[in-house]
Amino acid sequence: MKREAPQPPFSDPRWKGHTDGSIWACLTEQGYDQGQHLVTKWVWLPGEPDIVVIDPVTLAYRAVALMQLAPPLVKSAPGVGQVGLVNMPVWFWVDKTENTWGPIVRSASVPGLSVTATAHVKAVNWSMGDGNTIRCEGPGTPYTQARGVKDSPDCGHRYKKTSRELPKCVYPVTATAQWDITWQSTLGDTGQISLTQEAGTQLRIGEAVPVLVDPDGSEVAAPAKVGC
């Protein structure tokens, strides 16, 4: 906030009819679709304004808000709508975008001070819905048919039981991304911020159904399973 110099004449509408005090220029933030920018507003004050000090930490969190960090984009094989099998590999991974994985850099500033923050996901904790949790240091490896029936090299799991007895007959899987955020100000201050983003998916796990064969070589349907 800065006192206008020279002061406008009393006929200026910014005085709002006052003949004492002063007109001050005030820089404020205004949001728009792509972020924020500073605009100047003029205010009349009867005396000296109260000074509001914005510290680097406040600007750091403002820079993080500009990142619009989002929950991880969860993928699996087998995926939603497919059925996996007991004791067979399940692959997990997340798609990498700027605001779901990073690295992403944003800055926030006020007159005389600027803070730049850099964020990236350092790990994803997967809750498998069967009591097991795994920690994947990277995004995981996307599955392709060429990989066959193999375990994921960096982010996978094998279920020991079917999901038949669970609500909706699925395992609820949760992926929690751990963001590591560092920031530095133009005054030399530095710091770290930690936050998490969570997303989920569902997996249906069944079991291989044996095929019964009569001595004459004809197939006979296996007994039906109870449940889904």
Concise summary:
By secondary structure, this protein is mostly beta strands. 5% of the residues lie in helices and 46% in strands.
Write up what this structure looks like:
- The chain has 228 residues and is mainly β.
- The chain has two domains: 2-52, no CATH class; 66-208, Sandwich (Immunoglobulin-like).
- The protein has one helix and 14 strands.
- The strands form four sheets. Strands 5, 7, 8, 9, 11 and 12 form a six-stranded mixed beta sheet that branches. A three-stranded antiparallel beta sheet has the order 1-2-3, with no helix packed on it. The protein has a three-stranded antiparallel beta sheet with strand order 4-6-10, with no helix packed on it.
- The N and C termini lie far apart (67 Å).
Secondary structure topology:
Blueprint: E1 2-3, E2 22-32, E3 35-45, H1 56-67, E4 73-77, E5 83-85, E6 89-95, E7 104-110, E8 113-127, E9 133-136, E10 156-158, E11 171-185, E12 190-206, E13 212-213, E14 219-220
Parallel strand pairs: 5-12
Antiparallel strand pairs: 1-2, 2-3, 4-6, 6-10, 7-8, 8-9, 8-11, 11-12, 13-14
Note the main attributes of this structure.
Immunoglobulin-like; 1 helix; 6-stranded mixed sheet; mainly beta; single chain; elongated
- The CA-CA distance between the termini, in Å, is 67 Å
- Average pLDDT level: 86
Give the name of the CATH superfamily of the largest domain.
Immunoglobulins
What shape does the CA trace take? elongated
Number of helices: 1
- What structural category characterises the helix and strand content? mainly beta
Instruction: Please state roughly what percent of the residues sit in beta strands, choosing from under 5%, 5-15%, 15-25%, 25-35%, 35-45% or over 45%.
Output: over 45%
Most strands sheet: 6 strands, mixed
When the domains are counted, the total is 2
CATH architecture of the largest domain: Sandwich
Q: Order of helices and strands, N to C?
A: EEEHEEEEEEEEEEE
CATH topology-level fold name of the largest domain: Immunoglobulin-like
Highest-level CATH class of the largest domain: Mainly Beta
Low-confidence stretches: 31-37
Total number of β-strand segments? 14
**Whole-angstrom Rg:** 29 Å
Helix coverage percent: under 10%
